[in-house]
Design brief:
mainly alpha, Arc Repressor Mutant, subunit A, two-stranded antiparallel ribbon, 2 strands, DNA binding, Transposase_Tc1-like
Amino acid sequence: MIARSRHRKLNEVKKIPRVSAKDLQKSLEHANISVDESMIRKTLNKNGVHGRAPRKNPLLSKKPIAARLKFAKVHLNVLQRYWQNILWSDETTVELFGRNTQHYVWRTNRHSTPTSKPHPNCKVWSS
């Protein structure tokens, strides 16, 4: 891989960590450089950038929790007939056979573990 294209890919990965190796290959083809996807991955790995699963955020943050609590307090004394006229919908999507939408991001190696505590659902710190 040409040094110029290597630096170009590293800069692109730093700007957009969710870009895939296939997208990087297409952008190199626009610059008339023919490189295989595996070569792109190997080059990024040699330069300390690896594909990792992104960190999961909690389902509810403080703002939606406060909004739900406010809604509950406002509608605390509403009659049962009022709720019978409301159509409730559940917008949750359930995938029966594993995750169909696995995403990866490009991350550099961390030399030390973060000082803050991990998310309660996080079992192990990944570098």
